[in-house]
Amino acid sequence: MKKRILAVLMAVATMATMVGCGGSSAAETSSDSAQASSDKTWIIATDTAFKPFEYTDDNGDFVGIDMDILDAVAKDQGFKYEVQSLGWDAAIAACQAGQADGLIAGASITDERKESGWIFSDGYYDANQSMAVEASSDIAGFEDLKGKSVAVKTGSMSATYAEGLASEYGFTVTYFEDSPTMYQAVVGGQVAAVFDDTPIMASNIKDTGIAMKLVDGTGNDPAQYGFAVFNADNQELVDMFNKGLANIKANGTYDEIVAKYLGE
Amino acid sequence: MFKIITVYGLMLLGALGRTLLLALLGLFFACIIGLIFGIMGVLKNRACNVISQIFVDVIRGVPMIVLAFFVYFGVPYFFNTIIGGFNVGLTALQAGTICLALNCGAYMAEIVRAGIQSVDVGQMEAARSLGLTYGMAMRKVVLPQAIKTMIPTFINQFIITLKDTSILSVIGFPELVNTAKNVQANTFMSFQTWAIVGVMYLIVITILSRSAKMVERRLSVGR
Known about the structure:
The complex is a heterodimer of chains A (about 260) and B (about 220).
Chain A: H1 2-25, E1 41-46, E2 55-56, E3 62-63, H2 65-77, E4 80-85, H3 88-96, E5 102-108, H4 111-115, E6 119-127, E7 129-134, E8 149-153, H5 157-169, E9 172-176, H6 179-187, E10 193-197, H7 198-208, E11 212-214, E12 223-229, H8 235-250, H9 253-262
Parallel strand pairs in A: 1-4, 1-5, 8-9, 8-10
Antiparallel strand pairs in A: 2-3, 5-12, 6-12, 7-10, 7-11
Helix pairs in contact in A: 2-8, 2-9
Chain B: H1 2-42, H2 46-60, H3 64-84, H4 92-118, H5 121-129, H6 134-164, H7 176-187, H8 190-219
Helix pairs in contact in B: 1-2, 1-4, 1-6, 1-7, 1-8, 2-4, 3-4, 4-6, 5-6, 6-8, 7-8
């Protein structure tokens, strides 16, 4: 008897949780241009803090360029989605494991990633990687990094960029999970410099006044950010994203979103 | 699977080495801390008891990931920025060792205290009435018996500490989990990577617990 009551209670609790999650973050809109026939709620994985592409604002809302673009595209195409903010490498792992359907996290479109199974949408933002140091640091270029340690984010473009320079300039690479932790390490002096995406660092320096500065001439060639899936069965989602992206670019929503976060 | 072993095998072994180094350093200092605070907990001195209890409560009440961020980022920030004028810098290894030593040390202190208290009071009384000083009685009579009862729990704590090193991946110390995340991010083979890492931990911990069992058997001779 006791077990039975417990089972019922657990079932109720599970249902309540599921209803709660569905209601809070799923977009439930559909417009005339809607293409999606299924009622499927797509799980979209993202980073935890990658300002201004995704971050938690002062009101505790999870916002950012990626979130707004995703929302606008979903409205345009009439699909439901639920965002899971997992962190960069965990988001990738979740997509590969099929725990999530797609990834939007300022992911640069690269050939290496395509070869290892990423299926990208059209690019939605141009960005490159560069180096930043503590505001009063006298490091002026890669030459000054000899024997020092730099922070990068596990599995990111910045990691690839820094790894490629490490032996040439004689510095070591330290891996962190997210951008704020890397910036913290730079400001706190635990590392000499950080490699990260330029718009992210610029936005953080501008908005939070963190004691960090970009080092001129350290940027690499820009690549585009894309939405990605890891399973060919989710091609439908990429197609919807591409169509929606084209529509919101055409009707000016895209420019509004970028202007809202970057003030351009 | 083979690609990971051939390409990243050495990298992962190096990371395992750093994991073991971190665990050994942490355990070494944890033993010292645990012994000091554990004995302080049983001394007939109220102030010592209270200090020991506060230390244990504070450290046990804080998750190790919080402790890690606090020691690595918080403490240097406190000295260099809030107070100012200092230039405190901790490497990830130093910060990691401090975290493990404090965290494990608090549990060790409880193990030591409980171990000593598990020895019958009559032992101490008998030793004292035979003319031994408190310190002598503690060293020659109570502790040898207490240590025997402590050993299985100590070993358990060693294993937990070895596993806890993985938490220090968040401060960028290139131990096994931090390195494996990197391998996974490069290869996108999460199943293979984590399976290999799991087996690596399993092997080391099995060796540790088996050899600990042997030591336990040796020591329990004559019981």
